[in-house]
Amino acid sequence: MKILRLGFALGVAALAIGGLAGWRAVAEQQAAVAPQLAILDTDIGDDIDDAYALGLALRSPELKLLGITTAFGDTELRARLVSRYLREAGYAGIPVAVGVKTEANNVFTQKVYAEQTAYAEQGPAGRSGDAINFLLTKIKAHPGQITLIAIGPLNNIEAAIKRDPATFRKLKRVVMMGGSIYRGYGEGRPPDAEWNISRDPAGLRALLASGVPVFMMPLDSTQIHLETKEREEIFAHGSPLTDQLTLLYHQWKAGSEGHPDAPTLYDPVAVTYAIRPDLCPATPMRLEVDDKGFTRPVEGAPNAEVCLKSDEQGFLHLLLRRLAGEAK
Greatest CA separation found in the chain? Predict the structure, then answer.
């Protein structure tokens, strides 16, 4: 509605200016405030940060989500989780597509939530089938315009590049959570083989060689904790969306062993970069990926922009404002 009101105001201004030049100025200013087209690729259902990332994307007017694709493990069950989340949060019209199924030995902590809905319940408007076909079809329809936000293992991305590299190259950019440059898991640890990359190292190698601009949010900049005060502010908000986050959080806690009460919000940092890059300035780097999933900086022409340090307080302020306040 804000964009429509702005468009009306600009239109009045154009009439005052007069003529085609005035309307051309209006069109240029409207284009500047139009939301960017995006697709979210997620392994939602294991850790809880994907659910917060999806909530932030839904509540950010800078983005227009064309669809959500599920990655890694039981991608059909993940799609059922997303379908229920979207329906109960009031966003049932967004398509959900099932990604490449893989072997997985980790715990699907939010399995009960997912099992209590059927993928088909979302209806024809929401069921989009094969994630690779969905992704490539959307890119063809909007060449050079789509930001792919990848917050899970890169199996779908690898498959899309293999199927049609020329079309994949027409993405505007990929903004991803993954990698470990100078910091591993926790304070003072050396680099680790980060989870998303270690599940499919070949996927990141393919992406870095694809010709699409890559913006990486590694462990160095994404280990931001949602402490009790901020967490309870979100839970107490009581909107349909925050009610889903509350339920999923408690299922995550019940289904996890040894996890602290404060979740680490790795994935929402990638969504934040897509809308507020100033909160996570990126540095051009050249990365190499080994077979274990280590992402090492090397000499040579950059193949990615990497955020090594984020504005944690700025990020948390944005997250709370979007999830438990005004989406602006």
Answer: 66
